[in-house]
Design goal:
By secondary structure, the chain is of the alpha/beta class. The protein has nine helices and 15 strands. It folds into two domains: 198 residues, Metallo-beta-lactamase, Chain A; 88 residues, no CATH class. The protein has a seven-stranded mixed beta sheet, covered by helices on one side. Helix 6 crosses helix 7. About 7% of the residues have low confidence.
Length: 315
């Protein structure tokens, strides 16, 4: 696929991308976040909108405030509430005393936006576009840049450097497909994503992402012909050569595909998890590290239950 790369950004500084838009990259590089989370500073009539404050890191908060300089910060805005986007929100809000905008339904028990947004609503020239799939509460934002045209802040729904993880229950492959198809109906000239560089040919990549998922789905169906697999077994079969640090992500994507295929009646689940209802209580938070010792025990238990779920082609 036509993914992009860029040199490691200079830490602690902002980069002007377009008129009135600059970027500060958080210091949380990983195999899941590339060089780190992109925090955008968008200059408007009443001050700056900070889009995706980033991870809970005092240094990153200081970087954002330094990048703002003498310009007042008017609001904080979230594409979604995974920790690498939401984490700095509380500290940045405490430092600025400004409202937080996000999708009107929060999947997190310990977070609610000051002002909830619905699909189509607008704040400071940024029009919300509900794009669930990677996360149920995911919003992309349409924005008109003078001299450039309409662009899209695409969050983690479409990223320039990698495909997105779709990790149930918060991640939903049916919704992800629909959200990609929604973007194909639109004509933004470039995307600014949650991780990675600016994407200047977004339609081409969206088509490639959709094709990639369709091919993966076909591969899963072929693998299931005449036999059954657990989620963990199927992921290992399909991703045997994948970096071990990405094996959990691969397993979550396989589960998301299987649940979509089950929803469509093309596969069946042979065994329920030991406590599937309990697993639904845990909402994924981008991807936990490969080292299970750093992940909450309840989340590890959920992943183990999900990995044991067995599927076969529907008769």
């Amino acid at each position: 696929m036509g993914f992009l790369s860029e040199a490691e950004p200079q830490r602690g500084t902002s980069l002007n991308l377009l008129p009135g838009i600059s970027r500060v990259v958080a210091r949380n590089p990983s195999v899941m976040t590339y060089w780190g989370t992109n925090t955008y500073l968008i200059d408007g009539a009443d001050g700056l909108t900070i889009l995706d404050p980033g991870p809970d890191d005092d240094t990153h908060v200081a970087d954002i405030l330094r990048a703002a300089g003498d310009k007042p910060i008017a609001r904080l805005l979230l594409t979604h509430t995974h920790s690498d986007h939401l984490g700095a929100t509380a500290k940045l809000r405490a430092a600025t005393n400004v409202p937080v905008y996000a999708f009107h339904i929060s999947p997190k028990a310990d977070f609610a936006p000051d002002i909830g947004l619905r699909d189509g609503e607008e704040v400071a020239g940024l029009k919300a576009l509900h794009t669930p799939g990677h996360a149920a509460d995911h919003l992309s934002f349409i924005y008109n840049v003078p001299g450039t045209g309409e662009i899209l802040f695409s969050g983690d729904h479409v990223m320039s450097w990698s495909s997105s993880i779709v990790s149930p229950p918060d991640g939903d492959m049916v919704a992800y497909y629909k959200s990609l198809q929604l973007l194909l109906e639109r004509h933004e000239v470039l995307y600014l994503s949650g991780h990675g560089p600016m994407l200047a040919e977004p339609r081409k990549l969206v088509l490639e992402l959709l094709s990639h998922r369709q091919k993966r789905e076909a591969t899963i169906l072929r693998a299931l012909e005449g036999r059954e697999f657990s989620v963990a077994e199927l992921a290992e079969h399909l991703y045997a050569k994948t970096d071990y640090r990405l094996k959990i992500a691969a397993q979550r994507n396989v589960l998301a595909h299987l649940l979509k295929l089950a929803h469509e009646g093309r596969v069946i689940q042979l065994e329920e998890s030991a406590d599937e209802a309990a697993s639904m209580a845990f909402v994924n938070d981008d991807l936990p590290p490969a080292d299970a010792n750093t992940v909450k025990p309840a989340v590890v238990a959920m992943f183990m239950r999900d990995g044991a779920r067995r599927f076969a082609v529907a008769a």
